[in-house]
Amino acid sequence: MKSLLLTTLLTVLSACSASEPELAHPDEPRKTKVVAEHPRQQDIDEVLKALGSVESINDPTVSAETPGQVEEVAVHEGEAVASGQLLAALDGTLHAIETAKAAAEVRRYDVLVRNQDDEVKRLQRLIESRSVSRDQLEDEEAELDILSAQRDIARKQWEHARYMASKTRITAPLEGLVTRRYISPGDYVSAGQPLFDLVSVDRLRARIAFPEHDASRIVVGQTVHLQTPAAPGIAATGVVAALNPQIKMHNRAVEIIVEFDNPGGWLPGASVDATLVTERRTGALTLPLLALVNRDGRDVVFVISGNRVRAAPVTAGWREAGRVEILSGINADDQVAVEGANLLSEGSLVDVEHAAR
In total, how many domains does the chain have? Predict the structure, then answer.
């Protein structure tokens, strides 16, 4: 009896299920989720990058201008010096003697010239009374001219002796650092012998080599941003001061010289990373690089209209820091797919999420 009731119940349920109409589930168009944003207007720099080295603009070798024995060395390597500061002193005994001799010679000629001048004046008075001949007067006047010229020579020799005596004190020609000292007290030096190497670090220059295909884009006066591992975090900015007119044969590069003020901590000889600004554009349209995709060999971005997209061919320019400049093809009011753009095609349906600003 129980089995009969169960069989009857199952039959009724089956009949009810068969009698209910089936629910329709039509296929809905598939939407692609994308993140969108409007092009951003920004100022951008077209740049070239290269490596180089830092040099001092002024790095003189201080040499002896007169011979003598070194009596004193007043500075050491690495020491900062001011312009005119004493670096070393030579024995000035012989120069003092020569200066005194030259001064005595000047005094001697002063006396001779005075005496001869008196003689000429005396003869000029006598000539009026015809007590002496005019030939005698002319001879004495010629002698006065000779003595005056000899006195002039003696004075120049005295000036020379004093000048050479002053060169026993070797001084710094400019403000800078002592990079090398060649002498010690007691050394005998001759004229022209190197004594010290100095380097000025207040203003520096960098030599930078760019590939030859960039030569036409570089001109004097362009801005260059510089960084060096010798002074991390301390950047410098300079300008192109000169271009080497020859392409280097060994590396096919054009060399430029950039002059700049030392921002602090920069030293000659350091390597440098250079970024040369060839062009600055204001108000350029840029997008994240993700928005740019290639379709059939062309650069396109997908502009959103409603819930569909259209492929807009564009001309791309500057690319840096994950962004790309769009030179043509869209305007600032267009809404462009960024994340998910690589999944789209012409007319794709999209579910748009706006990028956070």
Answer: 4
What count of Cα atoms within 13 Å lies in the side-chain half-sphere of residue 281? 14
Provide the 3-class DSSP secondary structure of residue 110: helix
185 within 8 A of 72, measured Cβ to Cβ: yes
Nearest to 164 by CA among 191, 187, 136, 198: 191
Whether 242 has a pLDDT exceeding 70, the answer reads yes
Quick one: pLDDT at residue 126?
87
Taking the chain, what is the end-to-end CA distance rounded to the nearest angstrom? 76
Note whether residue 187 is domain-resident.
yes
**Of residues 9 and 143, more confidently modeled:** 143
pLDDT tier at 357 (50, 70, 90 boundaries)? low
Higher pLDDT, 150 or 44: 150
Of 93, 92, 85, whose CA–CA distance to 62 is shortest? 85
Distance, in Å, from the CA atom of 342 to the CA atom of 260, rounded to the nearest integer, reads 46
Strands (E), 40-143: 40-56, 61-63, 68-73, 80-81, 86-90
CATH number at residue 190: 2.40.50.100
Q: Report the CATH number that the domain containing residue 261 is assigned in CATH.
A: 2.40.30.170
Tracing tokens 């001064």 back to the chain, one arrives at 103
Tokens of 44: 């951008």
